[in-house]
Amino acid sequence: MKKMKRNIIVLITALCVCSSGFAQLTVEECYAKARANYPLINQYGLIERARDFNLSNAGKAHLPQVQLSAKASYQSEVTEIPLDFSQLGIPGVSVPRMSKDQYGATVDVSQTVWDGGAVRAKQESIRTKSDVEQKELDVSLYAINERINQLFFGILLCEALIEQNRLFQDELHRNHEQISSYIRNGVANQADLDAVKVEQLKAKQALTQIIHNRKAFLEMLSAFIGEKLDENIVLQKPETGLSQFSEIRRPELELFDNQFKTLDAAKNEINASLMPKFGLFLTGGYGKPGLNMLENKFSAYYIGGVRLSWNIGSFYTKKNSLNLIESNRNAVKIQRETFIFNTMLSKTGKESEIAKYRELLQSDDEIIALRNSVKRSAEAKLAGGTLNASDLMREVIAEQLAKQDKIVHELELSQAIYNLKFITNN
User: Fold this and answer.
1) How confident is the model at residue 175 (pLDDT cuts 50, 70, 90)?
2) What structural domains and CATH numbers belong to the chain?
């Protein structure tokens, strides 16, 4: 029976551990959840649909183009042949006269045979512009990661400070008990005990403030990722190992590359507009008169043939258009170089910051050990009656601050590493 109870306890403990493990949330998971929850994510589908519609419309230029037209008119004069056959000795013969009211309906069908690559250039321009819009969206969504870093590491810092505050309160409680015993033995007085009580109240105030800060950070993080985070949620502390990222892989660089492709597509459109266009046409009509202007009655007719068109006016603006594209290319190039320059500056600064925190952490443990030694010495002096409680509290607080410095340095190192990952996108 005892063995069964022991097995049940082990099973429940294992389940609790597993549940705690599954409840952990990583910063990478927060990135993905925030991206999926952000309203701007729906813009991707709209961009793709707009691209498909525009490509379909551009491709329809290769389909036969049909135009219907109809008209009815009345004119004050018509063309006449000034011949009088009766005067020429040919009686009974007359020249037909056109009617002043005329009617007609036509159907024009044209089929492009060769457009000089205009449709292909137009479709490429549509694709590149769509890619630019998507990359702009990537840049906007990528900026969310930086805000997630601030909230995530802010929560971790609060949690570490809460734990350290509780240990500090335990320490103050132990000092309170010791000084109470000293008072009973006549070694200390009430003022010494009051000094400890003041620090206990301050520690409780600090804990209240930290807990509320954590709650605020949790609420903001919940809003970003679209999930209600419980107060007991466990955030997994990231690793602080690798922190050297030489290559920059920011989405802004892909945006600049696609902007260059858009300018190339615009150049191809200009070149295509300079080419002549060949096509077939067929016109069918019904009206009065028909093709025979001298036949004053309704008749059907058709005209078919080959058409060549060439917009020579495009050559007038070619040079200016190409110069404008080259100017825009230089502007994008400058923007790209400026972005890389600023990113490298930020990267260098962040690497220096990481090195600083690593160096600070190397001496934090030694400082804590020394502060602990000084505190123990102060406790011994207080027990011997050669030191008052205020002096002891000063040493206790100094040790507490040293421990907090280490906690802050550890979290600042982790956040600096992830900020560096954000800067380089590694």
Assistant:
1) confident
2) 27-72+100-424 (1.20.1600.10)
